[in-house]
Amino acid sequence: MKIIIIILQLILFIIVAPILSGLVSKIKNNIRLRKGQSILQPYYNLAKLFFKDEVVSETASWIFRITPFVVISSTLVAAMLIPVVILPSPIYKMGDFLALIFIFALGRFFLALSALDTGSSFGGMGSSREMFISSLVEPAFCLVVFSISLEFGSTDISAFSGIHAVSVSSTVAAVALFLVTIAETSRIPVDNQETHLELTMVHEAMVLEYSGKRLALIEMSSYIKQMILFFLIAQIIFPIAQPGLGNLMQLVLWALWYLARIIIIVITVALVEVSVAKMRLFRVADFLGFAFVLGVIATVCAILGV
Amino acid sequence: MIGNLNFTLLFDPLSLFFILVIFVISVPSAIYSVSYLKGEYSFAKIILAWILLLVFVLSMVFVVTVSNILAFLAFWEIMSLVSYFLVVFDARHEKSIQAGMIYIVMTHIGTAFLIAAFMLMYKYAHSFDFLTIKNACQTMPLQTKNIVFLLLLAGFGTKAGIVPLHIWLPYAHPQAPSHISSIMSGVMIKTAIYGIVRFVIFILCVNSSWWGVLILVLAVISCLVGVIYALMEHDIKRLLAYHSVENIGIILLGIGMAMFFISLNLPYLSIFSLIAALYHLINHAIFKGLLFLCAGSVYKATGTRDIEKLGGLIKSMPQTAAYFLLGAMAISALPPLNGFVSEWLTLQAFFLGAFNVMGGARLFLGICAAMLALTSGLAAACFVKAFGITFLAQPRSRYAKDAKEVSLSMKIGMLFLSLLTVIFGLAAAKIIKLLAIVAGSATGIDSSGMIFSINNLSLTLQAGKSIYLSTPLLALVLIILGIASFAIYKLFGTAKEIIYKTWDCGYYKLDSRNEYTATAFSKPFRIAFSFFLMPYRKTQKIRESFYHVKSFAYETHTTLVFKKYIYDPVLALVFGLAKSMRRLQPGSIHLYLGYIFITVLLLIIFMHKF
Predict the structure, then answer these.
(1) Which single residue of A147, B521, B586, B597 has CA 20 to 30 Å from B176?
(2) Are B204 and B138 in contact (CB under 8 A)?
(3) Which pLDDT score, from 0 to 100, does residue A65 have?
(4) What is the DSSP letter of B329?
(5) How does DSSP classify residue B8?
(6) Is-contact B95 B164, C-beta < 8 A?
(7) Cβ B238 vs Cβ B179: under 8 Å
(8) By the 8 A CB rule, do A68 and B488 touch?
(9) Torsion angle, CA of A49/A53/A58/A59, rounded to 10 degrees?
(10) Please, what is the end-to-end C-alpha distance for chain B in angstroms?
(11) Is the dihedral of CA A242, A247, A250, A252 positive or negative?
């Protein structure tokens, strides 16, 4: 039974994750008074990629070939750790909130290596920039986890999925996590998913040599990672208690609110993306430094108990 | 006075643990050296290498087992001297002599601090024996204790290579033959950690909380400085040596926390932190030993340590590449390998600590934890660089092009250690239980009742709130999901795969000169940390005539802050002083006779008066 729920959760993540990206781009286009692509476009893209031939560079080694599988499996493991539906299950014994940071690092490490593997300077550029940004993300992420777990007295992920009052500390932490999410999901102002301009691209430069099914897997893991981070922010800033299984009405309301808060975050991300310009790479250090400071403030607030 | 000297050996859990660390690294390194030395040196030198290796390992074993401070100092000194001979083993390189010089001076400055500390201890205990001193230390005034602590920290800190005493480490470690580098970085600097645990925690007993805080601050600085310098480094062995500075920092984070919690009387947490430190200690020994052996293989196969000249070795040296990758993953704390477990434990110790202390200490621990996270992020970046530039893409020089896989005995050494990175990751639960015994004996806290199963790290204060980490389960799920995604990949869609050139923007003949370099890779870091690294450029135009520039040389360097602002002024002072002293010795025998006369006169006056 528990295993089934976990598998269902994975399938939920796989099915729902691309739509969030579709939504973000749809909202962005509508704000810019464009019609925009369908919100299902990410699915079309994935399907298209699955039926395309794949080109592998002759310089590439087995690192390039296995990376998509490492990336997707580590992202899925991270998705398993996120308690969408809270049930005491053995799978949460796999790791805690802190382990999540390291699991993300696993996929990123291989992706950065595969970018160097083909010998293209775009790959090197992307790899170097991605590792630069992610190493600055980590202290901010760590402090977010720290301030949240100070409130709960545990780094267990399921611990803070329950009810808790929104406090100053958790709000600040959520803002810090939002900045981290922008950097981790390669969105403006840190990176831009829509462009393939060599001077600015980070994530896109890393995966430039991938095509076909392997690219589909990597895209898929980006979608899932984005959804995980959105879930975390939602859980911190809009905490919600899970109702018992008996009351159908409550359950429906719960599910709707559950969905609504993700949508709120999606809209916020889209608004941020259309309203700011992309930063120069070296200003990203300031941006993430700000996230770090917010993390410190959240920790101070958590210590003060507000 | 010599009467109470006894050379009994101590085999308590702490010593046994360090003996284990010594042999776990030394044995594969010795096996490795069989073919590493062959062809590189003459027969006589190989014999010499083996003898030195034997004495080196034995002296380390004695350092961690003797039970009185005189014997400790003697073996400490033998260890330092033998390692000096090993550093200058390649005496034909001028660099080796220079590195040896820096090493021997620094290590003796360290020993001087140790001797001072031991003399103070002896003054109170009137004995050289560890246990007698331990008892005497309980009545030692706090002021003296503080001084002894600082002396010990400076002494062992020099050996461990904590910033700013790390200056010798990046010179000495890379210069030794690779199997020795692996033992030096993997094990020898750990004897300094043994010293800190044995003398500060076990003998001196911690009772001021600023001790732990001081160590934590130094550790954080070591972590960051070590990893930032490593990022700038292109010499693969020196890069690894800088990572030793970083990892010593991580180990000291655990030690510092343990001391901090002991002073706050939180036994459970102090044991937990010490476990984290010791776990990271043996893990670092394993993966750093492994990485140095791999670096040695690369050096043996290509004849260069400059990663800018390497590349593409994953095809010519597939096994070495795989071992290096495992080591790189372990040191970057990627699950489910051993480095991940111990860094997770260290971070967890910060978190658990913060739940149990109050006020500003919480924030302090939080920021330390964040700095550890930053360190591990930077370390991952550094190893993407180290592995990516060395092993991936196309060879950047003919040395790299002609590389061949190394011979069997070297492979065995590397294979053994890379298996250990996996085993120490997966068997975490068992190992933590064993380490709890070691930590218990070192701190004198009864740890037998404490539950340290990694599957159930339930804390005493918060019942019902447990933290979980299960590396075997994590590994299993990772593999299952990886296979599942591979199956989906194989079953659905088209199966056509075309092997073709890397996309070259329509520019033909993309070659290794178009590849990203290590310098370019680390450029964002160089700019972001420019306040510390102070990079500068050297440019030179080589002209054929006034009008035509034939070539353009461009170098980028970083300023070694500690060398420039601490060591160079001190050295200049010492040399300046020596220079002015030289005037006393002009070579005239008459003057010397005058000196003797004045000395005798002064002595007579001195004896008469006092």
Answers:
(1) B521
(2) no
(3) 94
(4) H
(5) -
(6) no
(7) no
(8) no
(9) 0
(10) 28
(11) positive
Task: State the helix-helix crossing angle for A248-275 and A168-184, rounded to 10 degrees.
Answer: 60
Would you state the structure tokens that stand for residue B178, as one six-digit string? 């690779």
Closest among B202, B221, B203 to B213, alpha carbons compared:
B221
- Spatial distance between the Cα atoms of B234 and A165, rounded to a whole number of angstroms: 51
Question: CB A55 to CB B498 under 8 A?
Answer: yes
Q: Which of B472, B452, B446, B444 is nearest to B349 (CA)?
A: B452
Most confident of B195-204, B355-364, B440-449: B195-204
Measured in angstroms, the CA of A28 and the nearest CA of chain B are apart by 30
3-class SS at A137? Answer: helix
DSSP helix, strand, coil percent of chain A (3-state; round to 5)? 75, 0, 25
Q: Which residues, other chains included, contact A145 with Cβ-Cβ below 8 Å and sequence gap of 6+?
A: A97, A98, A101, A155
**The model's pTM:** 0.93
A contact residues 183-222, partner B, Cβ 8 Å cutoff:
208-209, 212-214, 217
The answer to whether the CB of B193 falls within 8 A of the CB of B248 is yes
Look up residue B68 and give its DSSP letter.
B
Selecting from B329, B497, B510 the residue whose C-beta is nearest the C-beta of A54 gives B497
Percent of chain A with pLDDT over 90: 58
Q: Cβ contacts of residue B35 below 8 Å, gap of 6+?
A: B406, B407, B408, B409, B410
The minimal CB distance from A154 to the residues B467, B510, B527 is found for B467
For the stretch A168-207, what's the b/e string if a residue is b when 16 or more beta carbons lie within 10 angstroms of its beta carbon? ebbebbbbbbbbbbbbbbbbbbbbbbeeeeeebbbbbbbb
Using a CB-CB cut-off of 8 Å, the residues of chain B touching A103 are 335, 474
Count of beta carbons in the 10 Å neighbourhood of residue B357: 17
Q: How far apart are CA B367 and CA B372, in angstroms?
A: 9
Q: Does the CB of A65 have a partner CB in chain B at under 8 Å?
A: no
Look at residue A195 in the predicted model and tell me its pLDDT: 81
